[in-house]
Design a protein that fits this description.
By secondary structure, the protein is of the alpha+beta class. Helices cover 61% and strands 14% of the residues. The chain contains 2 helices and 2 strands, in the order αββα. The mean pLDDT is 88.
C-alpha cells in the first residue's frame, strides 16, 4: 500500500471551513432542486430530508480540501 504524504504541514482551518461551507451550500442547492427524496429497498421506503444531503455536501467539500492539500 502506497501512502501519499505531503510535506506541506500548514493546515488552514479557515480554508477547510470554507470548503465545508461551500459543499454544504451545494448540498442545500441539490436538496432544494431535487425536492423530496426517498430510499426504497425491499418494498419499504424511507424519506430523506435536506439535512443528510447538506451534511453529505459538507463531507464532499472537505474531501475536495483534502485533495487540494495532497496535490496542491
Amino acid at each position: 500500500m502506497v501512502l501519499l504524504m505531503s510535506n506541506n504541514n500548514d493546515n488552514n482551518p479557515a480554508e477547510a471551513a470554507g470548503y465545508a461551507a461551500a459543499g454544504a451550500a451545494a448540498g442545500a442547492g441539490v436538496a432544494a432542486t431535487v425536492g423530496g427524496m426517498g430510499l426504497a429497498v425491499g418494498g419499504t421506503a424511507v424519506a430523506i430530508g435536506a439535512a443528510p444531503v447538506i451534511a453529505a455536501g459538507a463531507v464532499v467539500g472537505l474531501a475536495a480540501y483534502g485533495l487540494k492539500k495532497i496535490f496542491g
